[in-house]
Amino acid sequence: MAKKKYRHFLFFLLIVFLVLFMHTLSYFESTKLEELAEVLQENSIVNIGKLEKKKKYVGILEIPKISLKKGFYNIGYKENTVDKNLEVIETSVMPNQKYSNLILASHSGNSPISYFKNLYKLELGDIAYVYYENKYYTYQLVNVYDEDKDGTILIRTSSLDTNLTLITCDKNKKDTQNVYVFTLLNDLEEFQQ
Questions:
Q1: Exposed, middle or buried by CB within 10 Å (0-12, 13-18, 19+), for 189?
Q2: Coil, strand, or helix at residue 37?
Q3: How many percent of the chain have pLDDT more than 90?
Q4: Under CATH, which number does the domain 59-190 receive?
Q5: What is the value of pTM for the model shown?
């Protein structure tokens, strides 16, 4: 008789344990789902296609001619490096300001992080888009030039324009960088002062 009571007691404990376990599991699953929903909501303001939706990009660069669509991070963020992503150069000024120059750098080789590998296919007049702070900025390529790869680079833009500058290594010359300068086509009156 004592064995029967002992079995009932163990069975009762097992049920209590399972109920607690299921409740705990349900709590963690709902917490994870809420966190995922927050991440998706932060990134759902634009259709970013195949971009990793869990990343917290501050903007997206898109160049349709070369099928490039890639997010970028804030300056100072650990993922803001050419070894992992597009890199926003420290002297950049974001496109929501007049006469800004957003400067992005990336590799041009054959590795998975060579996001600028097809920039060489661009021609003057080609279009690039930047999505930043809930607004699209449309740019047109106006200049392409080479710079020596010596740790410094001269950015040649007009201070009266709002620009997007893309920098990458030359595919054929190891000691040269290619610089692509785009000028904003949007009406500058739309900017916040």
A1: exposed
A2: helix
A3: 35
A4: 2.40.260.10
A5: 0.67
